């Protein structure tokens, strides 16, 4: 069923290229203006000016830099009748000046910040690109905050974002491939990778998937991420969406492919494994024992978050035998006046927590915090006093919610929170057996997932010992191989093969120390 | 696609067609924490300590006592008295009255082991007297008699002052052909409950008992231990080697030691003789201050005296167990395990055991003589 939907979005057969009808540029001044107005439906922000008798310029207000227009274009015009597009092109002193003879192409360029210069009697248009990017200034990333590390986030401009990346990686091998996506929006998309580090296979996959996309619009990178996922029906994200340029560059440097969409403040990094979602860039910046502790804490938090409430429900509904004796009295006393079975009680409280979270996220910032805190306290205390829930469950549910927020990635944090509900239901129906069933399903699902064809549960399944030092712990940097096995280039694979072979040779033949050195060399 | 439909059908069938598990919501059941069995004119009397959870945010303890032909029958009868369903999953201790123990408790233990609800880590114990009188007695200082008896047995076993008697171990001893089991004995003494000794069983019937003070020796013979305190009275001559003999000339010299590490070793000599050697690394806890324990010679002397004393005690205990013919130490098992093509049978071992010659040898070493802060 899901595959069918996917096929609708991603047709396998060759799709027709975007081929608009070609309209030649009319040589006469008035014809040109009429044609132009007809094609773009004479919008209010279209500016048409007659500079001299011969020359007409047209641009969209706000998309170009007026300073540059004055200094570099208008000042260069001479009132001569023998002006031609080629002479004009030479005189204008801005980097990108082109001559086109086709209307649609010209208008496309005009819409991203070019000035059209038409000379009466010539069937060509000179295009001077002086785009102005209205953009947000660079700010600290709000959703992925870090204590230690760079405090700069991506903004909505593609160019600024690529500039940021180039500041981090000054390397001629940093490749940037440009795509235009969306029939209506024609959004610019850049695919970035470092040649020589990246696995070419992944670049080809990304390229292929983006080319195969047949979409109408593209507003945010999150949509693109979902479209190029291996399995869009899975609850787990398979590509990382990050607003941190340092995390993005970290991905590129470990051999991953990055995608940036114009107008979106989040970059996509793929392939990404399950474990990496629980790692933060900050782990690299902290001392390794501390980073390891924090990582272990995060993984403990996932387990607490997913299984704590279900275990409570199952124990109280079916398995009263396993409750330790000292816990027995407090547990049963707090449950004594609750009229519902534990599963209803737990689902109710979990829903309240989710409501509070969602309300906190949607409300205006100024109201949001108050509602969150007051709502939590009022609902929590009042529910216990009214005898709807037991206070021990409130602690457990709050702990689970708190634990889920330790996940550094918002997308993954959501998954961890939502995945609890089916497990609670199963625990309420079948007890520990239900929890085990849910766990098995979860594991099977995770094992089945892949990200750009790379295994999702790496480095644990398939076991890649080389990546273990940087998995649930972070060992000192010398132990960590910079390029994870999942995403390493051909060159490196061959290198490691060679190493293996030389090792074998050394073992096979009894070499003298002198010869040994030669082999190593 | 067809495959998927079948899979979906399978999942839905799994969800819909499975029967419901029995709901056992914690606050809607009564938890039996302790059961005591007695025998009365051939019928079983079960006295159960039940923890009731009340909506008034308090839990109370109820004691029910019913008589029926089977233990299940007593449970049905007790259920008739109780507002909530009785569940035995939180059972911690099972007690057996004196009379029942003498008649045989193997059947009762079998019933306990058969019940999957009951954990095999519950403790079994024998009551000196009737368990009903023990449980129904008034104890002003004890809030929950079930919990109290559990804690009493549990901490003594953990500190290796008493032999361990979990259901698991007892069942193991029953199934082992050449081994008898022993249970701790509890006793009501006024307003308190004591552990009074060890009950020795033969073929599931209680045949004798040892005082609680002997439990350290029994443990020493049965297994390797690493805890447990022992008080010994050594002859007074030791004091002669003290710093100022004229002032201090007692007849007896009491000392206390605790075991740090013991190792028991059995060695078969022939089919009627066995060597039991125990090495005991211990710590000297109490001794008269005038004795120069820093002197190695004196320490060696003390060690020797301790050896002698423990040897005699152990010989006495083994002799007693031979008299009642209850092999609680598992010598028979050792014989069977360490003899090639052993043709030992249970009946044969019963004949051999009373006349078995056990050569006891203790090797004490005082590792530390007091730690000062």
From TrEMBL, chain A:
<feature type="transmembrane region" description="Helical">
    <location>
        <begin position="423"/>
        <end position="447"/>
    </location>
</feature>
<keyword id="KW-1133">Transmembrane helix</keyword>
<dbReference type="GO" id="GO:0009847">
    <property type="term" value="P:spore germination"/>
</dbReference>
<comment type="similarity">
    <text>Belongs to the GerABKA family.</text>
</comment>
<protein>
    <submittedName>
        <fullName>Spore germination protein</fullName>
    </submittedName>
</protein>
<keyword id="KW-0472">Membrane</keyword>
<dbReference type="InterPro" id="IPR004995">
    <property type="entry name" value="Spore_Ger"/>
</dbReference>
<dbReference type="Pfam" id="PF03323">
    <property type="entry name" value="GerA"/>
</dbReference>
<feature type="transmembrane region" description="Helical">
    <location>
        <begin position="296"/>
        <end position="316"/>
    </location>
</feature>
<dbReference type="InterPro" id="IPR050768">
    <property type="entry name" value="UPF0353/GerABKA_families"/>
</dbReference>
<feature type="region of interest" description="Disordered">
    <location>
        <begin position="486"/>
        <end position="521"/>
    </location>
</feature>
<feature type="compositionally biased region" description="Basic residues">
    <location>
        <begin position="496"/>
        <end position="506"/>
    </location>
</feature>
<keyword id="KW-0812">Transmembrane</keyword>
<feature type="transmembrane region" description="Helical">
    <location>
        <begin position="368"/>
        <end position="386"/>
    </location>
</feature>
<dbReference type="GO" id="GO:0005886">
    <property type="term" value="C:plasma membrane"/>
</dbReference>
<feature type="region of interest" description="Disordered">
    <location>
        <begin position="1"/>
        <end position="23"/>
    </location>
</feature>
From TrEMBL, chain B:
<dbReference type="Pfam" id="PF05504">
    <property type="entry name" value="Spore_GerAC"/>
</dbReference>
<dbReference type="InterPro" id="IPR057336">
    <property type="entry name" value="GerAC_N"/>
</dbReference>
<keyword id="KW-0732">Signal</keyword>
<dbReference type="GO" id="GO:0016020">
    <property type="term" value="C:membrane"/>
</dbReference>
<feature type="domain" description="Spore germination GerAC-like C-terminal">
    <location>
        <begin position="196"/>
        <end position="370"/>
    </location>
</feature>
<dbReference type="InterPro" id="IPR008844">
    <property type="entry name" value="Spore_GerAC-like"/>
</dbReference>
<keyword id="KW-0564">Palmitate</keyword>
<feature type="domain" description="Spore germination protein N-terminal">
    <location>
        <begin position="23"/>
        <end position="187"/>
    </location>
</feature>
<keyword id="KW-0309">Germination</keyword>
<keyword id="KW-0472">Membrane</keyword>
<dbReference type="GO" id="GO:0009847">
    <property type="term" value="P:spore germination"/>
</dbReference>
<keyword id="KW-0449">Lipoprotein</keyword>
<dbReference type="InterPro" id="IPR046953">
    <property type="entry name" value="Spore_GerAC-like_C"/>
</dbReference>
<dbReference type="Pfam" id="PF25198">
    <property type="entry name" value="Spore_GerAC_N"/>
</dbReference>
<protein>
    <submittedName>
        <fullName>Ger(X)C family spore germination protein</fullName>
    </submittedName>
</protein>
<dbReference type="InterPro" id="IPR038501">
    <property type="entry name" value="Spore_GerAC_C_sf"/>
</dbReference>
<comment type="similarity">
    <text>Belongs to the GerABKC lipoprotein family.</text>
</comment>
């Amino acid at each position: 069923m899901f595959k069918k939907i996917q096929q609708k979005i991603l047709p396998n057969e060759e799709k027709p290229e975007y081929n608009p009808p070609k309209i030649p540029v009319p040589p006469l001044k008035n014809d040109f203006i009429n044609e132009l107005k007809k094609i773009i439906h004479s919008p209010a922000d279209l500016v048409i000016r007659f500079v001299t008798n011969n020359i007409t310029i047209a641009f969209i207000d706000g998309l170009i830099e007026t300073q540059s227009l004055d200094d570099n274009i208008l000042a260069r015009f001479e009132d001569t009748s023998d002006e031609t597009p080629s002479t004009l092109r030479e005189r204008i002193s801005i980097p990108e000046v082109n001559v086109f003879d086709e209307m649609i192409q010209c208008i496309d360029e005009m819409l991203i910040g070019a000035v059209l210069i038409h000379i009466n009697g010539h069937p060509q248009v000179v295009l001077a690109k002086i785009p102005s990017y209205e953009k947000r200034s660079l700010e600290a990333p709000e959703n992925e905050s870090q204590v230690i590390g760079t405090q700069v986030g991506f903004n909505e401009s593609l160019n600024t974002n690529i500039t940021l990346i180039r500041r981090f990686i000054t390397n001629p091998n940093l490749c940037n491939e440009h795509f235009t996506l969306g029939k209506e929006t024609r959004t610019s998309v850049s695919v970035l990778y470092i040649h020589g580090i990246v696995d070419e296979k992944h670049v080809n996959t990304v390229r292929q998937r983006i080319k195969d996309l047949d979409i109408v619009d593209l507003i945010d990178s999150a949509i693109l991420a979902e479209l190029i996922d291996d399995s869009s029906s899975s609850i787990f994200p398979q590509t990382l969406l990050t607003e941190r340029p340092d995390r993005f560059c970290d991905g590129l440097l470990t051999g991953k492919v990055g995608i940036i969409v114009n107008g979106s403040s989040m970059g996509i990094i793929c392939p990404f494994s399950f474990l990496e979602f629980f790692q933060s860039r900050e782990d690299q910046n902290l001392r390794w024992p501390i980073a390891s502790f924090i990582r272990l804490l995060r993984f403990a938090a996932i387990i607490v978050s997913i299984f704590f409430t279900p275990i409570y429900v199952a124990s109280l509904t079916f398995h009263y035998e396993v409750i330790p004796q000292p816990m027995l009295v407090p547990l049963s006393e707090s449950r004594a006046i609750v009229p519902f079975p534990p599963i209803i009680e737990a689902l109710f409280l979990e829903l309240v927590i989710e409501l509070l979270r969602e309300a906190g996220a949607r409300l205006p910032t100024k109201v949001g915090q108050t509602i969150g805190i007051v709502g939590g306290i009022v609902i929590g205390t009042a529910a216990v006093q009214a005898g709807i829930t037991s206070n021990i469950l409130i602690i457990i549910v709050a702990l689970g919610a708190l634990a889920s927020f330790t996940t550094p990635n918002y997308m993954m944090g959501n998954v961890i929170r939502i995945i609890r509900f089916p497990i609670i239901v199963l625990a309420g129906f079948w007890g520990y057996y239900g929890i085990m069933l849910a766990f098995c399903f979860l594991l099977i699902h995770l094992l089945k997932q892949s990200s750009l064809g790379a295994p999702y549960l790496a480095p644990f399944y398939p076991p890649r010992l080389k990546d273990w030092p940087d998995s649930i712990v972070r060992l000192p940097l010398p132990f960590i191989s910079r390029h994870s096995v999942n995403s390493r280039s051909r060159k490196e694979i061959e290198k490691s093969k060679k190493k293996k072979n030389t090792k074998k040779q050394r073992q096979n033949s009894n070499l003298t120390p002198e010869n040994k050195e030669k082999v190593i060399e | 696609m067809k495959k998927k439909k079948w899979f979906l059908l399978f999942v839905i069938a799994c969800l819909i067609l499975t029967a419901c598990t029995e709901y056992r919501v914690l606050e809607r059941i009564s938890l039996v924490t302790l059961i005591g069995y007695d025998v009365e004119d051939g019928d079983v009397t079960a006295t159960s300590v039940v923890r009731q959870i009340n909506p008034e945010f308090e839990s109370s303890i109820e004691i029910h006592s019913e008589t029926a032909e089977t233990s299940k029958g007593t449970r049905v009868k007790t259920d008739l008295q109780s507002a909530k369903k009785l569940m035995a999953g939180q059972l911690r201790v099972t007690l057996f009255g004196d009379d029942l123990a003498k008649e045989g408790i193997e059947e009762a233990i079998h019933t306990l082991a058969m019940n999957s609800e009951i954990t095999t880590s519950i403790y079994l114990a024998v009551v000196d007297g009737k368990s009903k009188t023990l449980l129904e007695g008034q104890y002003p200082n004890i809030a929950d008699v079930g919990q109290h008896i559990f804690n009493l047995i549990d901490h003594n076993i953990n500190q290796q002052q008493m032999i361990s008697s979990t259901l698991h171990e007892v069942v193991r001893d029953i199934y082992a052909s050449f081994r008898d089991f022993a249970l701790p004995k509890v006793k009501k003494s006024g307003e308190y409950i004591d552990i009074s000794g060890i009950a020795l069983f033969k073929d599931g019937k209680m045949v004798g008992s040892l005082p609680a003070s002997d439990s350290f020796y029994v443990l020493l013979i049965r297994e390797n231990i690493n805890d447990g305190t022992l008080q010994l009275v050594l002859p007074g001559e030791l004091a002669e080697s003290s710093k100022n003999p004229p002032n201090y000339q007692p007849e007896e010299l009491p000392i206390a030691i605790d075991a740090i590490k013991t190792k028991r070793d059995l060695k078969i000599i022939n089919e009627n003789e066995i060597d039991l050697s125990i090495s005991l690394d211990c710590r000297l806890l109490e001794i008269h201050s005038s004795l120069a324990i820093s002197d190695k010679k004196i320490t060696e002397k003390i060690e020797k005296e301790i050896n002698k004393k423990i040897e005699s005690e152990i010989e006495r205990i083994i002799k007693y167990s031979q008299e009642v013919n209850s092999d609680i130490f598992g010598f028979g098992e050792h014989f069977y395990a360490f003899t090639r093509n052993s043709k030992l049978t249970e009946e044969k071992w019963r004949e051999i055991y009373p006349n078995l010659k056990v050569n006891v040898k203790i090797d004490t070493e005082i590792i530390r003589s007091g730690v000062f802060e």
